[in-house]
Amino acid sequence: GIVCGDLTSTWNGTAWSNGAPSKVTAVTFTGNYSSTADLDACSATINTGVNVTFNAGHTFIIGNGVTVNGTGIFTINNNAALRQINNNANTGNVIVRRNSAANVRLDYTAWSSPVAGQQLQAFSPSTLPTRFYQYLFTGTTTPTAYQAVNPTTNFVVGKGYMIRAADNWPLTPTVFNGQFTGVPTNGNISQPIGLGYNLLGNPYASPISANLFLGANASIPTL
What we know:
Number of helices: 2
Radius of gyration: 19 Å
Oligomer: single chain
Helix content: under 10%
Number of strands: 17
Order of helices and strands: EEEEEEEEEEEEEHEEEEH
Shape: globular
Strand content: 25-35%
């Protein structure tokens, strides 16, 4: 049978060298690319100096891993997605943009990072450092505790955080354009669950099925 790499196609900024890729094609980007539709591949390599962008409404479906080399930039815009089939590790940073609901000064938004290595304060630099919160897992006999978290630490993959809008945020509803930078998460992610309230987050740069998630965790009570 065909294995990933038997078929290849390179995007040079204008065209594919071996035709539009399919789910069995290993792709390399040597020129800039901006999506106009969904794209399938079995693996993806973005060369240094190349800018690859997936736009709203488009999904990059990859069987295995993503490699971003050197100064290459791989951007997944708001309402775009990177969906990976297998549990391969990724290499190199990507940019994932996610917009909040419109909020006003003193409002909180629950956020979770789809990448590893994103610092909390750097994600929302104008939020007061005392206004980042978590539900702290305290074990199976003591309820989780809602408490401040040190914003110089990074998002823990799969964990949710409550982050307040900046003190200078408008008093009229305004969208916050969130941007995460780091290695995109792939594979199985686990988070401990404590008594009482917990705040979990989607750890991937793609939607997940809430029904399948809840069904796979049927023994854990939810609100």
